């Protein structure tokens, strides 16, 4: 019986080492897949007339190797004084982010009077994902309505 107990103890130790080793391997894999979302660009029409509608296009980037589903975003249009003119308050605005870059049409924007404005777009606005750089999640583009 002593031999059986020794074999069982050795098997248990080997199992613990195997599990521990597998844990290190998978942690290393997660570290290698460090993710960072950012907005590379916002495309707006070259000319916007008074009270015209337009659909901005956001170019989002995902530096990781995995696709992330339902990554939320928010946007706003501000006048020259910094006042919000248009703002999405619906937290269900989300995109799927494959590895690399992808473009997404955002909601139609309209009813803006002549003047200078900024369009601000923020990815992962609810901070649901841990990223390697949280400081690059906002992109602001200026535009003029004539």
Assign the CATH topology of the largest domain.
Immunoglobulin-like
From the alpha carbons, calculate the radius of gyration and give it in angstroms. Answer: 24 Å
How far apart are the first and last residues' alpha carbons, in Å?
92 Å
CATH class of the largest domain: Mainly Beta
Please name the fourth-level CATH homologous superfamily of the largest domain: Immunoglobulins
How many strands, what sense, and barrel or not for the largest sheet?
5 strands, antiparallel
Uncertain regions spanning at least 5 consecutive residues:
20-31
Q: What's the gist of this structure?
A:
By secondary structure, the protein is an alpha+beta fold. 21% of the residues lie in helices and 38% in strands.
Summarize the helices and strands and which ones pair or pack.
Blueprint: H1 2-32, E1 37-43, E2 57-62, E3 68-79, E4 84-87, E5 94-97, E6 100-105, E7 115-123, E8 138-145
Antiparallel strand pairs: 1-2, 2-6, 3-4, 3-5, 3-7, 7-8
Describe the structure.
With 146 residues, the chain is α+β, with helices and mostly antiparallel strands. It has two domains: 1-32; 35-145, Immunoglobulins (Immunoglobulin-like). The protein has one helix and eight strands; from the N terminus they run H-E-E-E-E-E-E-E-E. It has one helix at residues 2-32, and strands spanning 37-43, 57-62, 68-79, 84-87, 94-97, 100-105, 115-123, 138-145. The strands form two sheets. Strands 3, 4, 5, 7 and 8 form a five-stranded antiparallel sheet that branches. Strand 3 (68-79) and strand 4 (84-87) form a beta hairpin. The longest helix has 31 residues, at 2-32. The chain is elongated and about 90 Å long. Residues 20-31 have low confidence and may be disordered.
């Amino acid at each position: 019986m002593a031999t059986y107990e020794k074999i069982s103890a050795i098997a248990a130790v080997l199992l613990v080492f195997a599990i521990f080793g597998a844990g290190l391997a998978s942690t290393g894999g997660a570290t290698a897949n460090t993710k960072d979302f950012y907005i590379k660009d916002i495309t707006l029409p070259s000319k916007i007339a008074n009270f015209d509608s337009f659909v901005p296009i956001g170019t989002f980037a995902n530096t990781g190797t995995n696709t992330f589903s339902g990554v939320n975003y928010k946007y706003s249009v501000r006048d020259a004084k910094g006042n919000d003119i248009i703002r999405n308050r619906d937290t269900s605005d989300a995109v799927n982010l494959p590895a690399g870059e992808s473009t997404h049409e955002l909601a139609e924007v309209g009813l803006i009077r002549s003047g200078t404005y900024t369009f601000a777009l923020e990815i992962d606005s609810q901070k649901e994902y841990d990223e390697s750089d949280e400081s690059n999640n906002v992109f602001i583009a200026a535009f003029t309505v004539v």
